[in-house]
Each structure stands twice: as C-alpha cells, then as structure tokens.
Specification:
heterodimer, A: alpha/beta, 3-stranded mixed β-sheet, about 20% helix, B: 7-stranded antiparallel β-sheet
C-alpha cells in the first residue's frame, strides 16, 4: 500500500486497498509533518475509542476538502471507518467495509483476541 | 574667537560671570573677519553655546549665550585624549572615530544620504559616547573634526542648523538626538542602545531605528515540525510576496527579484522557494546567502518565494524562535506544529496569534494522536 497526497488538489491517493485504518492514519500524519506537507491543511481527524481488553473503535474522517482517490483502474477495498468522499475514476471499483464497533490493526500491537471481542460485545449488550 | 583663532591666544582675561570686553575688529581700515567675533562657551561640565557677534558697526554688541550644568557629563576632563577625527576614553576604554564623507545608509527601511559616520569601539554606551564627543568639542580640546578644531566645531555641513548645546547632538531621556548629517554605525552600538538614538539625514529627514522583534514558540518536542508565517485570513499562510528567486543548482545564494519586505529577517531566517524549505544566514539587498540546503538540481528560475518566520524540524530543546526583524505594524501569525509517524505523534496543533511591537509567542498544545 502506497499512500501519497496530492496537496494542491487535496487528494489522498492510494495504489492499493486500504485495509489497515491505523496504518493509513499514521501514514497521513507522517506526510503532514514533512516540510512539504506542513504548508497545507491537515488531512483528517482521528478517533480511537478504547473499548477495553485491547479493542479499539477507530475512525478517520477526511477534512478540509480532502478526498480519497484510487488513480489506477482496478478493484479496491476500504476497510474500517475511513470516511470521506471518493473521487470517481473510470475502471475503479471500491468496496467499503465499515465497522460499527471495532477493527484490528497490525500497527502498535496484535489486536484483540476473540475473547476480548466477545467480552466487549457482551459488555455492550448488557450496558 | 576671531578670524578662526582663539582671541588673545585663548588666554582668558576675565573672571567668572558676565563678560564685558573690548575687541579690535578693524585693522588698517579693514574689518577683521567682517567684524564678526564669535563668543563660545564650551566649558566642560556645562552645556555649550556660542554666538556670532557682528561688531562691524562698533559700539557695544551683545553675545547672547545660554548654558547650564550638563548632567550628562559624569567623567573628568582628564579622561579623554583626542586626535584628528578621533577621541579616546580611558574609562571606560573606547575610541570614537569620525569618518567624514558621503554615505548612503538604510535604517528601518529608510535609505538616506549622510555626510559622515560616527563609530566606536568596545560597544560603549551612548551615555559615554556623547561625553567623549562633547569633550572633543570642549574649550581645551586638541582634536579636530574634518579639519576644524574641536573647540570650534559646530556642524557637519554649513547648510545645517547649529546644535548650540552639543555639536554632535543632545542626549536627553536616555536618547541621543544625533546632529544632522551623522550616520551612527549600528555595529558600534551596545545591545541596550539599539533604539536609543535618532538621526537626521542630509535632507533633513528624521530617521529612527526600527523596533526589532521576533516570534517564538514553546512546548515543542524533538521530532516536531513547526511552521510559523503570516496568516492569510482564510486558514493558511500568506505566501504572496510578489518576489521570485533565481539561483543555480548547488549554489548557496539566490537572487531575489526585489528587496523583501522590511519585516523579513535580514540576519538568519527561513525562506520557501518553489515550496522548498531553506534556511539562510543573511539577506543583503536582493541577495540571499547561506542557503541550506543548497539550491536543488534544476536550479531556480523565477521561482515563487516567501519568508516564513520559523520553518524547521526540532532537533533539540523545546522552543524555537525566528530571526529578528523590524516591526512595521501589528499582524496575525499562523503556527502549525506537527509530529506524526514514529516518536510521540500529536494531534496537529494549529492556531493564530498576534504579533505586536513586542513580538509574538505561542505555546503548542500537545495531545496524543494514536
């Protein structure tokens, strides 16, 4: 997955499916704090709601007019609450998978166990 | 004084107080120096005065002098020695040098012609410098100013108005009101006197030193990138300067299409050329020198240019400051502080803050962004 930003046109460009929302967030923040990126407005806001037991509810919202764009024709998946408009490109088909409560990531840990998830669901149901 | 020389060879024949004396103003039927006798009062420790008395008509003429104890004089007369266009102080130790000649200088963005330059060593305070200059003009001075005996020196150009009390300008309220035509070398000034003087250029314009300020930011951390510049009023930086840069690849200097605004640091500072961030060590006219990094491959040719106040990655410490620049008017600055990727990422911090005649400062707010 290679994510770049077309700063002048406010486009977040990807050449692959976006399946790790935490990695997408980290990549965008990394681009924003470069000498080339800091001149431009920030791309997104980030929420990481701790559900307990290692589970998090993540949400990334593009702001300031930024949009997603997959410039190369093909089939892509956007997994997680990656909010924001998508620029239509001929030959590009995108499946968006959003989660109501959690998602997993390979960044910063191994993610919640099945038991953690079950506990979180029970806690949610009982609350 | 008569005809360029001290009357009676400078030997005083009168006692203290009002003087009534008889002067010879005509010799062999011709007036001596048109009958003008100049009465100078230049006693050390008192304000100076002089009066040109026209004695051509004979009779009794009045020399109107005005003087008073000079509280600015704190040194003894033996503290100084003088020479041609110089006067040296023993305590504190410094030498004032006068350079007679045209010089066009810019102060606070005002470029003017001056007829002479005053400079001195030791970063002496102005309160000391004006005493030395006053000594150079006192009654027993053996120094000269532009070939004129110090005790008789009045002004740098005959078209100027005399400053009776102090030929090099009066010192009042901690401020030196320098006599017309003299340029004061800024490099000589003590850091506490940067603004404690004002000049009058050859054309009679009063020129005051600029108010030098800076902007700073605190609560930073290693790994942060900070950008501070003028706010454009719509959420971004004002990058419109109308100035472009030209430079060859690998060079550490670029040439601007025009002189930058007066509120751009001319010492060390930051510059964005074609979006690329550089620092510089100085700007002289339209030449930006000490560029780092050097001009990239391809060079710059008429590349859009603007001047952030702070534009750097924090490698140590927890604060950052701009270079000093001249205050012109209040403005709003925008600051962005970001740290993503590794380390301790923070929610991007961005705000605006006012920059006034005292400068401006801001502290970043650091909220974890993971």
């Amino acid at each position: 997955m290679t994510i770049t930003v077309d700063w002048a046109n406010k486009l977040v460009l990807s050449d692959a499916s976006l399946t790790d929302i935490v990695a997408v967030h980290a990549r965008l923040r990394d681009l924003e704090d470069d000498a080339g990126g800091i001149i431009y407005q920030q791309t997104h806001t980030w929420k990481a709601l701790d559900l307990g037991g290692g589970a998090f509810f993540y949400q990334l919202d593009l702001i300031n007019g930024y949009q997603w764009k997959f410039p190369t024709p093909g089939n892509y998946t956007m997994t997680g609450n990656l909010n924001g408009a998508i620029v239509p490109v001929a030959g590009v088909y995108i499946e968006r998978k959003t989660s109501a409560a959690y998602s997993t990531t390979a960044i910063g840990g191994s993610g919640p166990s099945a038991s953690d998830i079950a506990d979180a669901v029970w806690a949610k149901v009982l609350s | 004084m008569q005809n360029g020389a001290k009357y009676n060879s400078g030997t005083k024949w009168w006692s203290a107080g009002p003087v009534q004396a008889l002067f010879k103003v005509k010799s062999s039927g011709s007036l001596i120096a048109s009958g003008i006798v100049t009465v100078l009062s230049r006693e050390w420790g008192y304000s100076f005065s002089h009066f040109d008395v026209d004695c051509s008509a004979g009779s009794e003429q009045v020399a109107a002098l005005s003087l008073a104890a000079d509280s600015n004089i704190t040194r003894l007369t033996g503290n100084y020695t003088a020479g041609a266009n110089t006067v040296t102080s023993t305590s504190p130790s410094f030498t004032v040098t006068l350079t007679i000649g045209d010089t066009t200088q810019s102060l606070g963005g005002v470029s003017k012609l001056y007829k002479g330059t005053i400079s001195w060593t030791g970063a002496a305070r102005l309160s000391e410098v004006i005493q030395a200059l006053q000594w150079l003009c006192h009654e027993d001075s053996n120094g000269t100013v532009g070939g004129v005996s110090g005790w008789n020196y009045r002004k740098l150009n005959s078209a100027y108005t005399d400053v009776l009390a102090a030929p090099f300008g009066q010192f009042a309220g901690g401020r030196w009101f320098t006599a017309q035509g003299w340029w004061v070398d800024p490099a000589s000034l003590h850091s506490s006197d940067i603004q404690a003087y004002q000049l009058i250029s050859h054309d009679g314009t009063t020129v005051t030193p600029p108010n030098v300020i800076s902007v700073s930011a605190g609560n930073l951390a290693v790994g942060d990138y900070i950008l501070v510049g003028k706010d454009d009023g719509s959420g971004g930086f004002n990058t419109t300067t109308g100035i472009t840069s030209t430079g060859t690849a690998g060079a550490t200097t670029v040439t601007l299409s025009g002189a930058p605004a007066s509120d751009v640091p001319t010492g060390a500072g930051y510059i964005r050329i074609a979006g690329n961030a550089h620092s510089y060590t100085g700007i002289s006219g339209t030449t930006v020198s000490g560029l780092s990094p050097a001009v990239p491959t391809g060079g710059y040719s008429g590349a859009a240019t603007w001047f952030p106040y702070i534009d750097k990655s924090i490698s140590s410490g927890s604060s950052a400051s701009s270079g000093t620049f001249n205050y012109g008017s209040d403005f709003t600055a925008r600051v962005r502080v970001r740290q993503g990727g590794g380390g301790s990422p923070i929610v991007p911090f961005e705000t605006t803050f006012g920059v006034t005649s005292s400068g401006g400062s801001v502290n970043a707010i650091r909220n974890l962004d993971a």
